[in-house]
């Protein structure tokens, strides 16, 4: 399935899929089947469906900018269902990432473009600073209830793990943007 893995809310999204096969190896093509993508996310009343139009033996899809403008940023899940009278076949399923639109009307609101890993790393580093400066207590009890927090060693280990993950994300983003792998070294003789 060729649905994009990452889209931006407010964009017109287009893709094409070739014909598929069912579990018995029979062709599933646009001459016999209608292919519909169902998209949903973890928000109530949030979803979309897109029905393809025939393109050769496959299908062509388009999500209007006005429709995608209402998509919440985050992880969305999709299922491609081919149907004809008396037969329904799932040709594929997966997930995609919807990025928030950066356009605005009037006064722009705040946008946090950090990944969840980067946000976690920043929180861990803030906790380390707080613990070092004496602003945080590692363990305490009130009225018979106790609370324990991460030790400095645990926080430092978590920080190291998150730093490595952030580096992997940054490297993947460079590669995805066509800027290459920064760890590749090319030598000419």
Q: What does this entry look like structurally?
A:
The model has no long low-confidence stretch (mean pLDDT about 90). The chain has two domains: about 5-100, Immunoglobulins (Immunoglobulin-like); about 115-175, no CATH class. β5 and β6 form a beta hairpin. The chain has three helices and twelve strands. The longest helix has 25 residues, at about 150-175. It has about 190 residues and is of the alpha+beta class. A five-stranded mixed β-sheet has the order 1-10-9-5-6, with no helix packed on it. Helices cover about 25% and strands about 35% of the residues.
Short key terms for the protein model shown above:
Immunoglobulin-like; 2 domains; five-stranded mixed β-sheet; 3 helices; 24% helix
């Amino acid at each position: 399935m060729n649905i994009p893995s990452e889209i931006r809310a407010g964009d017109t999204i287009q893709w094409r899929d070739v014909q598929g096969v069912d579990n018995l190896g029979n062709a599933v093509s646009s001459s016999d089947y209608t292919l519909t993508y169902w998209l949903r996310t973890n928000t109530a009343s949030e979803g979309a469906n897109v029905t393809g139009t025939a393109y050769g033996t496959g299908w062509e899809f388009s999500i209007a900018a006005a429709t995608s403008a209402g998509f919440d940023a985050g992880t969305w899940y999709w299922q491609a269902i081919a149907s004809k009278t008396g037969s329904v076949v799932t040709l594929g399923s997966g997930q995609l990432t919807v990025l928030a639109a950066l356009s605005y009307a009037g006064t722009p609101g705040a946008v946090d473009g950090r990944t969840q890993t980067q946000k976690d790393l920043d929180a861990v580093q803030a906790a380390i600073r707080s613990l070092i400066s004496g602003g945080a207590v590692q363990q305490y009890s009130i009225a018979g209830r106790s609370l324990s927090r991460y030790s400095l060693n645990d926080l430092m280990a978590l920080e190291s793990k998150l730093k490595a993950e952030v580096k992997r994300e940054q490297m993947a983003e460079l590669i995805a943007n066509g800027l290459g792998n920064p760890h590749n070294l090319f030598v000419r003789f």
